[in-house]
Amino acid sequence: MDVRMNGGTPRSAPEGWPAVLTELGVTADELPDGLVVADERGVVLCFNAAAARITALDPADVLGRPIEQALPLEDLDGRRWWQLTDPYTGLATRTGQPERNLLLPGGREVLVSARYVRDHPTGPVRRLVVALRGTEARRRTERSHAELIATVAHELRSPLTSVKGFTATLLAKWERFTEDQKKLMLETVHADANRVTRLIAELLDISRIDSGRLEVRRQPVDIAAAVRRHVDALVAAGQPADRFAVRVARSLPSLWADPDKVDQILGNLLENAVRHGEGTVTIDVAPSSSPRERGWSGTAVTVSDEGPGIPEESMNRVFTRFWRGSKRGGTGLGLYIVKGIVEAHGGSITVGRAPGKGAQFRFTLPVGAPAFTV
């Protein structure tokens, strides 16, 4: 197999080039990450196109030179990385270096990991294989985390200011207020405290979803009763009773799920339909099966409204962080959390257009008792 560096003259593949790449006819320049390979003397044999792009170095200035000169990496404290890691004369038991953020001359940041290839576990290094990646993906993640912190901080400021203001007023002038005034202020404090609690719960849910640690405690759940309970709560909060239509199919299969998480899903979807939709909010509960998986059965809940719906170009972003649609308000985290909860149950959720051209959300949870209860 030939390895071409930046369209130049073909060079033979470095010794030990992965056989699968050889069989597929893949060249070094076709790899998405930067690849630098040095021989047993530390001389650079391979410097692919991605490495040139990531480092902004000319391959002609790299190939054939000692790697510590061609790629003068430093850590964030200004120490020379090759001297610190010492791949050729350092500990013979080392197999490589984990990925870390390093700097090239001029302050250019790159993510670098290394593998030491030896003929036997404690033998001399025959090849040094270095992988390079840009820092754009990490910066996007950091920006997302910063935006999350800023959003939550902004949402917390309003209720906490209210709680502080009302409690300070009551403590300073308790005797001057009537019982009705005191009750109104305490009810406001209570509502704002609940809002803070919800925001903190959302933040914890996002942390668990992102780290794959969201726990699901399955119990038998009457999904139809849960839907009606949420509708009754919305009516009690002032919504017209005739705005909701609940349709439940007969003979629903037994559903084992986390009841608190199911309430969280229903609460988010119904609140979205009421706040952002118009007309009648229809909730359908029916059995469901997967055409792709034989024997798979579930319960599907569909929430539809008669509002303007979601633009086609926005549908693939509905379940991402901070998506708020056309109307501002809220953290934009609810649907992201809903998707994480549904998938933690092994289910799925989709968004589309309702028959009346409004928005339609449909989630499906698998049914049946967990194996440990059988």
List the defining traits of the structure above:
single chain; 374 residues; alpha+beta; five-stranded mixed sheet; 9 helices; 36% helix; elongated
Classify the beta-strand content into a percent band: 15-25%
Low-confidence stretches: 1-13
Shape: elongated
Return the string of H and E elements: EEHEEHHHEEEHHEHEEHEEHEE
Classify the helix fraction into a percent range.
Answer: 25-40%
Explain what you see.
This protein has helices at residues 19-24, 49-55, 67-70, 81-85, 136-173, 179-211, 223-236, 259-276, 334-344, and strands spanning 2-3, 11-12, 34-38, 44-47, 96-103, 109-118, 125-133, 219-221, 244-248, 255-257, 281-289, 297-304, 348-353, 359-366. It has nine helices and 14 strands. A hairpin with a 5-residue loop joins strand 3 (34-38) and strand 4 (44-47). Mean pLDDT is 83; it is low at 1-13.
